[in-house]
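Progress note, sequence design subtask.
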């Protein structure tokens, strides 16, 4: 399986841009952003939204509500729903869908407990999923895809395949930026940042979707639990759903970022084969086919 990931060693500029993030009070900054993005005063939200659309080139023609002034606060604009036909389902029944709009950061095989972050940068599968070896075991030697959501992207996350929720895990951590320069230069970034891991049972076996927080990502939420972060405390928390199964169809919304970040999808060994035409930094759209199920897997 060919690997796709951000290439090149981190430059001096990459390292220089990343260094100021280490002493920064990540959570305090993000709590402030959480409050500001929910201010409803028109003199705050309207110019902020207009500036954001202009600066990042947001395509409002896809939005269910294309009038930016109609949103009650900036966060409602940022997590705006799209028109029903904006992201069609793939024709192939066995296609695995992209869970998010964004850019492909990495895709390929999980080498035992090691995932690729960027050229020369790896991190632990077990750490990513909250430090429980039994939780990580089904994905050893499996497959993973990492998708980065830029500020201009649609920020709701959807199901790659149909699945039934088994467990949700909140892992506290830092909130480094997840831009190219930090992915290339901050060791173990995705296993250091705060994250919410959601584990599903699917026709392919287990599937994990990990929503990774970042600086200014004021909260992460799921359709079944609402806002999961930002909570207080430093302990890993988990919730089991054996008695209250939640089934989500392929392509259905499963969560969202209130401000943007990264999604990592994990599958067991020999269950999917990725689209070989995709390259690192390839633009992706929700429900776009990025892989196909191995029927014998």
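Output:
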């Amino acid at each position: 399986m060919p690997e796709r990931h951000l290439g090149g060693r981190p430059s001096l500029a990459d390292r220089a841009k990343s260094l100021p993030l280490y002493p920064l009070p990540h959570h305090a900054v993000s709590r402030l952003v959480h409050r500001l993005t929910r201010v409803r005063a028109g003199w705050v939200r309207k110019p902020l939204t207009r500036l954001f659309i202009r600066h990042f080139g947001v395509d409002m023609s896809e939005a269910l509500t294309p009038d930016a002034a109609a949103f009650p606060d900036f966060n409602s604009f940022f997590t705006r729903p799209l028109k029903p036909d904006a992201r069609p389902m793939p024709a192939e029944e066995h296609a695995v869908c992209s869970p998010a709009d964004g850019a492909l950061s990495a895709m390929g095989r999980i080498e035992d407990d090691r995932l690729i972050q960027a050229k020369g940068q790896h991190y632990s599968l077990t750490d990513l999923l909250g430090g429980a070896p039994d939780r990580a075991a089904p994905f050893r030697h499996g497959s993973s895809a990492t998708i980065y959501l830029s500020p201009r992207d649609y920020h709701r996350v959807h199901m790659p395949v149909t699945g039934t929720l088994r467990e949700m895990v909140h892992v506290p951590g830092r909130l480094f930026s997840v831009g190219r320069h930090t992915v290339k230069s901050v060791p173990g970034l995705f296993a250091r940042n705060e994250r919410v891991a959601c584990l599903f049972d699917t026709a392919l076996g287990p599937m994990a979707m990990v929503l990774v927080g970042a600086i200014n990502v004021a909260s992460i939420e799921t359709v079944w639990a609402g806002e999961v972060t930002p909570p207080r405390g430093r302990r890993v928390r988990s919730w089991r759903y054996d008695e209250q199964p939640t089934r989500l169809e392929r392509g259905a919304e499963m969560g969202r970022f209130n401000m943007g970040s990264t999604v990592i999808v994990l599958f067991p060994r020999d269950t999917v084969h990725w689209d070989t035409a995709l390259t690192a930094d390839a633009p992706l759209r929700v429900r776009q086919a990025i892989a196909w199920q191995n029927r014998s897997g």
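Helices lie at 12-18, 26-36, 42-56, 74-78, 125-128, 133-136, 180-185, 189-192. Work on this subtask will continue into the next period as scheduled.
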